[in-house]
Amino acid sequence: MMSEAVDGNLQRLVERDEENNQEDIWIFGYGSLVWKADFPFEEKRTGYIKGFLRRFYQNSIDHRGTQERPGRVVTLIHSEDPESKVWGMGYRIGATEKLQVLKHLDHREKNGYDRHSVKFYPYPWTANQVNDPQPILLYVATQDNPSFAGQNDKLEEIANQILTSVGQSGRNPEYVYKLAEAMRQLYPGERDDHLFELEKLLLESDPAVNVANKPEPSTDGDTKRSEVSKEG
C-alpha cells in the first residue's frame, strides 16, 4: 500500500510538472479520439503504446448510454505481456493550449478515468514529423470507480448491453463499428480480437445495420485541428 501511495504521488508530481512547464504535451486516444478529437492540436500521429489491452469494461452513462441503461466504452487494463500493443492516435497539444485541453479532458473523462503517463511509439516513420518515442498522457478507468463493469463479462453479455444502449452521442453499437473500422483503415493487418469479435457479434444481431448503411468513420487525416464534437 505504501508503494502504491508513493507511485501515486510521483505520478501527480509528473503530471503537475507537465501542466506547468512551457513545453508541448502528447495525448493518446484509443477510443473515440482515434477518429475524432474534440480539442485543438498541433499534430497527430498514428502509433501505439505497450503493456496494455483495450477492453469494453467501462459503463457509459452519458455519451453512449444512460443511468438507467448504461452503454459500454473502452478502457485499458494492464497486460501480462509487456510487449503487447494498443494502437491508437497521438495528439501533440501546444504549450499555450495544454491547460485548456487538460481541463476539458478531465471533465470529459470524469466518469471514473484517471490520467497516466506512458511512452508512445509513433508508427510508421515519416520524414516531416516526430518519430522518436514520446511521453504521452492517457486516461484509464480505475477499477474501483462506480462505472467500471468488471473483467468477467463474456463478449456475448457485453454485446447484448451495447445493442440496446443509446446516449447523447448516439447509439452504442456505432461506437464499436467506428472504432473497429478506424483500426482496419489505420492499421491494416493488426489484430484486436476483443474489438473485432465484439463487432462481429453486434453485426449479427443489430437490426439497424446492413451493408448499405454501416457507419463509416471520419478519417479527418489532413486537418491540423479537429472539428468540435461531443463524441464519447
UniProtKB/TrEMBL annotation:
Q: Name one GO cellular component term.
A: cytoplasm
InterPro entries (UniProt xref): ChaC (IPR006840), GGCT-like (IPR013024), GGCT-like_sf (IPR036568)
Say yes or no: keyword Lyase present: yes
| A Pfam family per the record | ChaC
Q: Where is the composition biased (Basic and acidic residues)?
A: 221-232
Superkingdom to which the source organism belongs: Eukaryota
Query: Where is region (Disordered) located?
Result: 206-232
EC number(s) stated in the UniProt entry for this protein: 4.3.2.7
Q: What enzyme category does the UniProt record give?
A: lyase
GO MF entry, a single one: glutathione specific gamma-glutamylcyclotransferase activity
Keywords, A to Z?
Lyase
Catalysed reaction(s) here are: glutathione = L-cysteinylglycine + 5-oxo-L-proline
GO annotation, biological process: glutathione catabolic process
As for what it does, the entry says: Catalyzes the cleavage of glutathione into 5-oxo-L-proline and a Cys-Gly dipeptide. Acts specifically on glutathione, but not on other gamma-glutamyl peptides.
In the record, the note on similarity to other proteins reads:
Belongs to the gamma-glutamylcyclotransferase family. ChaC subfamily.
Q: What is this protein called?
A: glutathione-specific gamma-glutamylcyclotransferase
| Species this protein is from | Anopheles epiroticus
